[in-house]
Amino acid sequence: MGMLTPRLTWGWAGLILELGLLRWCGQFPGWAVGQVALVVLLLANVVWQFRQVAQSYRATPFFQRGWRVGLAWSGLLVSLVGLALPWGLWGLGSRFLVRLKLPAAWVNDISLYRHPLLGAVAVVYLVLVAYSLIWGPQHWRLTTVIGTPRQMLQGLGWLAGLMLSWGMMSGALVVGNWAVDQWLSPSGATAFALGSLSLILAGYTMASLLGTVTLIWCWCGQPAVAVPRMQRSRWSLGGLVLVWVVISGAVIVQAWQMPRFLATTVISHRGLDAGVGVQNTLGALRHTKRLHPQYVEMDLHETRDHRWVVLHDENLKTLAHRNVTPHQLTQAQLSGLTLRENGQRGRLVSWPKYLKTAERLHQPLLVELKTTPTDSRGMVRRFAHLYGARLRRDHSAVHSLDYRVVAQLRRVAPRLRVGFITPFNWVDPASVPADFYSFQQRSLSDQFILAAHRQGAATYLWTPDATTAMSRAWALGVDGQITDQAGRLQRVVAQRPNRVFWAIVANFTLSYI
Questions:
Q1: How far apart are CA 350 and CA 348, in angstroms?
Q2: CB 268 within 8 A of CB 297
Q3: Which among 214, 303, 355, 509 is placed 20 to 30 Å from 174, CA to CA?
């Protein structure tokens, strides 16, 4: 009951109110004055709440009370926010990241060199966890009673267990929604889904509060406070519940009313469907054309003689069993090489031949222009001059993981649709202007989709192949999906939306992770 004294209860209510309002305001673009004020108020309230908690401990010396406790807890708060960011930041992570504006060159460098950078970030993250949470009590010394590393590990274990229990409960509700969506009416499925969202948010709130209290107890022991009178305790608890109901209702209604189940552009990844044929070959293209996808996505690499072949990998070892790169051979030497994949055979094809075949089939292409350090100078400009107008006439488009390609193509061929491929979603799309974005699926949220739509850009998702992933993407409101299972995607988006209301519940759950 110590954590539910009237003084602390209203602090928890304030935190719930501010977190909920920030999530609700996160649907609006930019940094409004009200949003900035809410962030400042939230941080101040967290420091105040920590101070109240610290003062309720018998072991807290007098000289550490007041502003010194607030200052110390403020420093710890900065560490905790950084640690919580990869885990959703209480449902606010994507809402903050989508407002992060950086120079395009920085975004591009981080995207291109993401693997070593992610390794370095992981090391820094683990050091922060160890310093702030495991050995934190001994370093910060906020109280005279100091938790041991073993106690802190136990506290983290309890927190992980609580969140795991919440995740299992949420997963069960998603499965339950999937089951009832198959036979309930649209109104019945809606009611069941809204009830599930309420339970998921209630469970997350309880797990977060209990986990936070557990960590505090492991840090400096249980508080020495008098048990509040029952009448005052009831009023405080009632006020806390009322605040939660109001703010949670607003969050849930907003989540339900987001744009959902839009018309979906079907894009065949590497020209494949259901594993028939070898990727990026003419045989796969002809087979996939029977499904009439809006685009066939394929990849280009520059050759030694400054031409292009249709190939994804930077080395032919996997597909052709030859340890060479496209830059080591000419287009003529590469064309016709036998490729093997999944027990099937195909021929490596030159870009002019592939393009001519696609035009004969009246199949628009989504061309991924690959870059390597060995590319020739002027490669992008030469490609634009040779094929920009032709691709535009074919209603085709180009995208690339290298933003330098995107920016140059937009300058040289301004009427050609050009998009940027994101390996992960962590920055305002306006930092890297494009006609469309090919978002990576694992870290996508509706915030990035809304941000792209506000600047008039379409959003494609790569590479959902499972029915569940396709349904979740459809429920998020993406404009298209780049998939190896084009036929399956067509069947998914042909359903009545109320058959996949479970996907809204799943997306809501994942927004808090």
A1: 7
A2: yes
A3: 214
| Per-domain residue ranges of the chain | 2-256, 265-499
Q: Does 62 score more than 50 pLDDT?
A: no
Tell me what pLDDT residue 63 has: 43
The CATH superfamily holding the domain 265-499 is Phosphatidylinositol (PI) phosphodiesterase (3.20.20.190)
Give the tokens for residue 69.
Answer: 């406790």
The rounded mean pLDDT for the chain is: 88
Asked if residue 468 has a cis previous peptide bond (ω within 30° of 0), the answer is no
Q: How far, in Å, are 71, 269, 286, 439, 504 from residue 280 at the CA level?
A: 59, 9, 11, 21, 34
Q: How far apart are CA 447 and CA 29, in angstroms?
A: 9
Beta strands in 423-487 (DSSP E): 436-440, 458-462, 480-483
Which residue type occupies 340?
A: R
Pairwise CA distance, residues 234 & 345, whole Å: 73
Burial of 448 (0-12, 13-18, 19+ CB in 10 A): buried
* Predicted TM-score (pTM) of this structure: 0.90
Q: What is the pLDDT of residues 335-349, one digit of tens each?
A: 999 999 999 999 999
Residue 260's SS3 state is coil
